[in-house]
Amino acid sequence: SDLAKKTLERCQSQYDLEASSSKGPHNVLYSALQETLAGICSTVVAVGLGIEYYWLLHFNSQPAQPSEAITQDHDVLLTDVHRWMHQVEELMAWLGWVEQWRTCNPACS
């Protein structure tokens, strides 16, 4: 969508250092920053807009639905949630953040 393209472009260019003469596009740091932002932004925008779209379809209106439709919607949501989680996990692995992500089992107090 046009919104997704514009959002992604704004996200990727929020730290645009190209205007600075000391940090041109051939600079290794500049390239690394741009590539990292592209990876983070593409995941965040895809997941964020997916969640917003789901919310718009299912929670911004209150049409009377038969229980079968609600069950089907729940199944679709679970599928989407697993896909979004997988996208975030892939991003974390690509960034090398997997080892930094810690949880307590049982949950921390």
Automatic annotation (TrEMBL):
<protein>
    <recommendedName>
        <fullName>SMODS and SLOG-associating 2TM effector domain-containing protein</fullName>
    </recommendedName>
</protein>
